[in-house]
Each structure stands twice: as C-alpha cells, then as structure tokens.
Amino acid sequence: MTWDWHAVSDFMPRFWDGLLVTLQALALGSLLSFTLGLVWTLLMRAPTRWVRWPVGVVTEFVRNTPLLVQLFFLFYVLPEWGLTFSALATGVFAIGLHYSTYTMQVYRAGIEAVPVGQWEAATALNLPRRRTWTAVILPQAIRRVIPALGNYVISMLKDTPMLMVITVLEMLGQARLFSQQRFQFTEPLTVIGVAFILISYLASLLLRALERRLVR
Q1: Where are the domains of the chain?
Q2: Which of 5, 26, 75, 140 could form a disulfide with 166 if both were Cys (CB 3.0 to 4.6 A apart)?
Q3: How far from 16 is each of 21, 170, 199, CA to CA, in Å?
C-alpha cells in the first residue's frame, strides 16, 4: 500500500466543506442541548407533578432510544405528518434533543451541589424566586458543571458522522462519497480521523480555559 498525496490534495476541498458542516452541527447542537437541558431541569423542579410527569416521560424516552433511530424518525416520519425540515436542521435538532436529556442530569447535579446556605441566604434577603435562580443558584451551579458539559460536546462531535444517514455530507459523508467515486479509502479516512482527534483536543483545551476563567 502506498500513500497517494494526489488523492489527499483532491479530497481537501470536500474535506473543508464537510468540516464546516460538522462544526455547524456541533455548535448548534451543543447550544440546543445546553439550553434544552436547563429547561428540562427547571421544569422537573416545578411544584406540580402535572409538569414533572410529562417532562420525565419525554426525557426518559429520548435518553433510552438510540440517536440513530431518532434521526430516521425525524427525517423520514415527520414529513408524513407535514413537518419537513432540511437534513442539517433535522440533524442539529436530533443531536440537541438527544443530548439535552444528558445535560439535564448534569445541571441537576450542579444545582443540588449548591450549598443549602445559599438558598437560605436568598430567602433571608427576601429575593424573588427568579432573582434567586439567576443571581445566586445558576451561576454557582453552571461553574460546577462546565467539565461535564465539555465531555458531552466531545461526545456530540463524535456522533456527528451519524448525520450521514440522513444525507448530511459532514466530514465522514464527504470521505465516503470521495472513496466510492475514486476507490481510494485510506487517504480520506485517515484525514478524517486526524481531523477528529485535533478538533477534540482543541475543544478540550478551550473548555479547560473556560473552566479556569469561571472558577476565578
């Protein structure tokens, strides 16, 4: 087996296109999962079980079904009900929704780790409930959960190749298409593997820097 640098050169334009799609899916999916995860957490702390029970059922169902099944369902079943979205939008929503059920547990742990004295102090100061959450509880909780949330960002990155099954040409999709057209698999798949390693490493460095900044 010989390494073909011409194949690498020919693949690079497709690689950059796939990289852009991968980063878009990762950024938007992460934002959605973090936002939805916090919403689920707050709803699960609602005083009425008529709010907690439906949220618990939905999040348990999503967490215990494979992301691949959810991708197929959203992309192929929803259009039969009149709900049609682009492949990338569907993939972003699927990743964000799926991982929000995990980030929900991270937020819950962070909130429960806030000392009871902080709640008591907010009550003693007669702070409104909204002010207690936004100014006292959530800032402390989020600082505690940054490392765990960062781990899920990397997990989402490694799951972006699944979007290929709903026709999204992210990095692996581009590599697969190139390989089938040229019958050269080693070069594009190696480039993709190295790219995933570098992106994961850079993401971990950024998250560590963010963690140090928030801890100050």
Answers
A1: 5-215
A2: 75
A3: 9, 9, 13
